[in-house]
Amino acid sequence: MQTTGNLGLKKPEGTDIVDIADLNRNMDILDNAVTGKVDKVTGKQLSTNDYTAAEKTKLAGVATGATNYTHPATHPPAIIAQDASNRFVTDAEKTAWNAKAGTAVATTSTNGLMSAVDKTLLNNNTGFGTTAGTATAYTLTLSPAPTALIAGLKFSFKTHIASGANPTLNPNTLGAKAIKKPNGNAATLALNGVYTVVYDGTAFILQGEGGDYGTATAADVLAGKTIGTEGGLATGTIPLKNTANGVTGGSAGILDYHDAASASIGPAAHNDSTSALFMQILPTGVNRLAVDRGVFFRVKESNLVPANYLKGKPMFGVDGAIVQQPSAVAALSSGWDGNQLYIRIPQGAYLQNTVIGSPEITVSPALARADSNIQPGNIRSGVWIYGVLGTLQPSTTSAVNLIMKGGEGDGTFPILTIPAGATYASMCGSLQFYTGSQSNNANKVSVFLQNAAGVRVSLYSAQGGSNLTEHQGFYFDRIQRKIVTRVSNGGTGNPYGTGSHGGWRNSYAMDGQLEMPDGGVLPAGFDANGVLTMYAIISGAYGGGYASAYANGYMIYY
Hints:
The protein is mainly beta and about 550 residues long. Helices cover about 10% and strands about 30% of the residues.
C-alpha cells in the first residue's frame, strides 16, 4: 500500500485488497482540504506573499496618479538650513585647509608641529641670567624662563661669587643639579665668570672645558716655563743651573754633568724595597731635594744582592753572603732512589783545590750506606762494604725427607728450615698433603711458614673429605719477601706463583695464622728476616692414615 506525498492518500497496489474504508478516508481528506481554498477568478491570481486587510486599506488611500511624481536631480543651496555644526565650504577654503600641517611632530625631512621639548629648547637656547645663592648652591633666574629641565637644555650665566667645592645650580627653581666638567669632575667657577652649560639629564656640563690640570704648581716647574692651572697660567720657580765642575752647558756637543759624590746599596740606607745602587750627585736645583740632601740616581740591578757574591768580598760597603768552602768538605747527608746515590753538600763556593787539583767532598761510611740493601745478609760473609761486615754464606744444599702418616699419630712436625743468612732458597722436590674421608670430618692437615717471632703464614689447609694436593717444590726471595710454588695435580704446566696466594692451595686466615696474599708476597705483619721454618700439623689421623704429609727433595740456599 502506497500513500501520496502531500495529503497522505492511500494508493492500493495490484496485490493489495481494496478496502472501502480506505476510499472513504481519502474522500474525507480531500473534502477537508478544499474547504480552506478560494475560488480562482479569471484575470486574477493569488499573491506569493500574505496580503492583510490593513495593507488593503493603506493601498486604498493612495491618491490617483501618485505614481507619476519625479524627484529633481539637484536642489538649490538656499533650501538647505545651515548651523554652527553644519556649513558649506568653498573650494578655496578647502584648498587652504588641506595645505595646513598635520598633527605629527616635524622631522628634519617632513613638516609638522613642534614638540613641547623642542619649543623649550628653542626658547632657552639664548637664555641668560646672573646667579644668586651661595658658592656651593647657585640659584638662577633665566629669561626666557624654561618650564622643565630637559636633556639638551642649553643656556649661559654669569657668576656673582666664585664657586666652592662641588657646586650646584638651580635654574628657575626647577631643581638643583651638579655643575661638572666634561670629564665628570666637579667644576670650578671664577667670580664674574660667564659660562655656558648643557643639561645632560643628570647634571649641567660646562662647555669649552678641556679637562683636569693635574696637581703641579709653580714650585714644580722650571723657572721661565708656564703651566696651566685652575687659576690660569702659572710660571715655574725652580732655577735651572747650567754649570757644574767647570763644565758649562749650552754649547754644541757639551752637556751638563755632575760627578757622583757617593754611592751605596739599598734598601736599608734609602728605605727602598729593592736591592739597588744609589749614587749621590752634587745638588743641581732641578729637583727640590737638591736644597737639602742632594739627588740620588738609582741604578736598579736585581742580581746585586749579598746572596750572589762571596762573603769577605764586600761591594759598595755590603759584604757578600756566599761562604767560600775549604778544599775538602764533609758531606751533610745522602739519599738513594733505587738507581742513583745522592750526596748533599754544604752551600757555598768551592774554589780551593786539594793536592789533586780540585775540591773534594768526604763521605762517611754511614752516608755511603744510603741504599737500604747494604745489609750483612746481602754481603758475602767476611767482606766489609762501607763499614758493614757481610754474613751471606755461599750456596749450600740439604736434604728434605719427611713422611708422616696417620699411623704415626697427630702432632706438629717441622718440614724444612731456611737459614738466617740465606737470601734466596729453593726446594727441588715434592710436597704432598692428604686427608681421607671420615664420618665426623675431624681429620685435618695444616701447613704454615713460621718466623723467629712465632708469627705464622698459612700455606695449605684441608679438613675432612678426600683431598690430595702436591706442590712441586717452591722458591723463596728474602729481598722481595716472596715464596711461590706450583700445584702439579691442579693444573700441570702452570708457572710458579700462578693463581691466588702465589700458587699455595687453600691458604686461610685461621688458627691464628695469616692468609697468604696474592702473588705469594708475605703479609706486612710477617718479618721475613732471620730463621724461617715450615711446619705441618696433623690432627684426627686416628691411626688409620686419614691425614698425612710427605716431603722429599733438596734445599738450595745462597
